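hey m, so remember when u said the tokens were messed up on ur end? i reran from scratch. heres the input so u can diff it against urs
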Amino acid sequence: MAYAINKINRDLAFLPNTTLGFVIYDTCLSSRKAIEGILWMMTGRESSIPNYQSENPSTLAAVIGESSSTVSISIARLLGLHRYPQVSYFSTSPLLNNKDQYPSFFRTIPSDDIQARGLAQLVLHFGWTWVGLLANEDDYGLLGSQIVKKELLKAGVCVAFHESIPIAPSSTKVNAIVETVVNSHVNVIIAFCTAPYLIFVVRALNGRNITGKVWIASEGWSSTSRFSPMEFAKLMGDTIGFTVHDRTIPGFKDFLLKVHPSDSNNDIFVKRFWEQVFGCQWPVLKSNLTTIINGLTEDSTQCTGHEKLEQFKDKYQDEPDLRICYVIYNAVSAVIHALKNMLSCVPGHGPFTHDTCANLSNFRPWQLLHYMKHVQFRSTNGEEVSFDSNGRPPARYDIINWQRGLDGAIRLIKVGIFDTKAPNGQQLYVNSSALLWTKQDRKVPPSFCSESCLPGFRKVAQMGPHVCCFDCIQCSEGEMSEELDSSNCWPCPIDQWPNDGRSKCVAKTIEFLSFQEPLGVTLTVAVLLCSSITVIILWVFTKYQDTPIVKANNRALSYLLLGLLVVSFLSSLLFVGEPQSMTCLIRQPTFGIIFVFCISCVLAKTIMVVIAFNATMPGSSMRNCLGPQIPLVTVSGCTSLQVIICATWILLCPPFTEKNMKLKTGTIILQCNECSETAFWFMLAYMGLLACVSFLVAYVARKLPDSFNEAKWITFSMLVFLSVWLSFIPGYLSTQGKYMVAMEVFGIVSSSAGLLTFIFVPKCYILLLRPNLNTREYLLGKGRASAKNDMSS
């Protein structure tokens, strides 16, 4: 302050014919003494007389101070009543933003509400979600910490504890705070404090050998030298925090180096300053009080005045507490520029009533206050200084990191800035490559209540007040989460399914009875083999078509039945492969019609056996029925009814392809929807009814006297046919997907194979291996004895 005022006084052009002076009053951090001092300054009298107006009010232009927010609030109410400008360089309480209560208050340091937002953004920048909070029990700490806590909670960060450090030292309270810190397992602690109060807690924690904590410092203690000794290096080595924006004051360090007690006899602070720098005592100041303040003993060396400040030049270069000098310099400069603007007023164009100007030698406090509100200038290093409507300057902080050097001492390294002038989202900048933590690496220490939930899991809050403490539960079947710490799981699209880790959606497996899979290949081979055998049997029958065994029981029906069996075997291939619209439409009707056609042929053959036996009896009238009319009517009539059933089914409710996504987890089953289950089972019921009739007729005719009674083999074939389809029903209903289709293919193949085996294989045996039995005499029973003799020989 002295440097700024002396500099202006030496500049005769800045405030011509005007000399500035200053009076320093020590409040001793007491609101009562501060108010006494303000009354003394305003009245110009030794005794404090409220409402007394000095004869020369312009003697007091403005008040610079106080540093304490609590004291500033007390004197700001009084100064505001008289409209005296007050500029504080260290009072940061947001309460002072209220212009209704404190109309004449200004400051050159940002308020705590801005700093609190910045500290919260710093926590979010490093991804910390579990922090502790310490604060002074005063306006600075309580109000600032509440704002920090509010900002943190709004951003989803949990505050594990919020402890207040008493203003009056209390070992009980300090010990309780230490126990809270130790038991909380919090790795990050935000200390919105000032150094004189925080030091008690720090010393107690240091005694407990606490390490691994990251301290986030407010500007109240971030650049103090109290915690720099090596004894706190392990505890405080990871400190990162906000500090006053560092700007140099041109010529100020040279001014300090020229300070000497002999040149400042009237300055009581110079000799105290000298004692602290050189660790000596002036005889005139030697007292118990001085000894306590300076930490000296009675045996300390005496100051001579011949000590050289130049040897301490490097100390001044690195001294962090000099940061506050810049905001003090700006506080004085703001008042000086307001006086200059008032002096520059042109009569008749002034801002007051009748366009008058204020008289610099005799102005009222409210007149200077007007110019203070509109002051705007650039400091000596080019930075713009102004006040907003709340009396605050543009907010800018340096972010510093305490780093331990090779010698074990802590050094403050600038690693970033927080600038409210920057666009939203860019106000905070941290140079991660410049950060160094206690472990001497660049990895950010973690601080969370619970481990992060990996993709595929969701958070479930634990019982308690903190939402940051949670358990991780795997997503339910059919749901997934693809982000860390997801609060919810989401279902996949209908055609997708979560992977094994349930961290992303993948396409569902498509399932159908394919020609490429083992089951499909097996069934296809069986179909082709049976079809080939049927074709071979048909060839054998055509080759021996004029033999008695082929002519017996209607040769045409045998050819028709063999052809139908070939088609029946091949029709089962419609069930294999990817379902298509056409295959779904025709496969069940094709199967139903062909099988009824086959059974009708079998029934016709059985009827013809009965008719043929009866026709051989003397005087039988059934000889007329041995023509082709009976088989034709039987086959066409029975088959036509099945054709009507299937045609009605297709016309009213045709089968179609569908993707069944509910039947099997994680699988899309491509299948044919029969549309009408009633029509399907009605078709099967008619086929079963016809098979039962054929079985009964064949069973009745099985013992007819004949060397080769075909009814007996038809009975066996129908028995196999019915057994297959009766077992098909529960098997079909108990399977799903491709196995249901495979079950139906197996039923078609096995039942067709039963018909082929029992009706035609015995005849092929005679045709190929026992041609001697293929005679008319044998069929009529006349050659039976000779055949037996041949077999025995």
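this time it looks ok to me. The chain is about 45% helix and 15% strand. if urs says something different then somethings off w ur setup not the seq
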